């Protein structure tokens, strides 16, 4: 893999790359099972889909990239779309060298599969690829989407499109973590005013502090792992 940022990866390319972490004598290639095995074994703690929309540049890029680095250090693989992908590229996180910022488990997966710790999925029009991957994970694991140690995040959820995408995720059963500008009043009032829609299976965690948001994501994924007994 080149040390330059990769072009947007397709679902097929991601699955093919994951074959690099398989034991060819016992593992099934061409499926999401290698990823599942890395997660159940604790090599990876989970995955975060980072979304960003036009207008999200109100958030300081270094702070935004710092959140992504926190996730990588905790062995959490990041799938980036839209503005989040651009932030990751500008911070050098979509390259071979970025594996050095990852925890030992994620670093090893990156080396074996020859992928960066942040996978670029391109523009927001490719968000359907995330659904495809989640569906494949469910088919291969027997789990439902809400059970998967996968969450969504928009570190600068300031646009109507961002809210729409977030609501799509919660509607699918995927928890969403949203970074917002400092605000007055209660979190519940903010959620209502912004039109953030929660469901019985998934909700929003909102914070103006991206350090706090990162800690919440790590804790949320660990809670999902505990529920699965892994």
Shape: globular
Please report which band the strand proportion falls in: under 5%, 5-15%, 15-25%, 25-35%, 35-45% or over 45%: 5-15%
| Biggest beta-sheet profile | 6 strands, parallel
Low-confidence stretches: none
Strand order of the largest sheet: 3-2-1-4-5-6
Task: Output the CATH class name.
Answer: Alpha Beta
Number of strands: 6
Series of secondary-structure elements, N-terminal to C-terminal: HHEHEHHEHEHEHEH
Number of helices: 9
Mean pLDDT: 90
Number of domains: 1
N-end to C-end Cα span: 31 Å
CATH topology: Rossmann fold
* Radius of gyration computed on alpha carbons: 17 Å
The CATH architecture can be given as: 3-Layer(aba) Sandwich
SSE class:
alpha/beta
Helix content: 40-55%
Keywords:
230 residues; alpha/beta; Rossmann fold; 6-stranded parallel β-sheet; 9 helices; 6 strands; globular
How are the elements arranged and paired?
Layout: H1 11-18, H2 33-40, E1 46-52, H3 61-73, E2 76-82, H4 83-90, H5 104-113, E3 118-120, H6 128-141, E4 150-154, H7 160-172, E5 176-179, H8 187-194, E6 204-207, H9 210-228
Parallel strand pairs: 1-2, 1-4, 2-3, 4-5, 5-6
Helix pairs in contact: 3-9
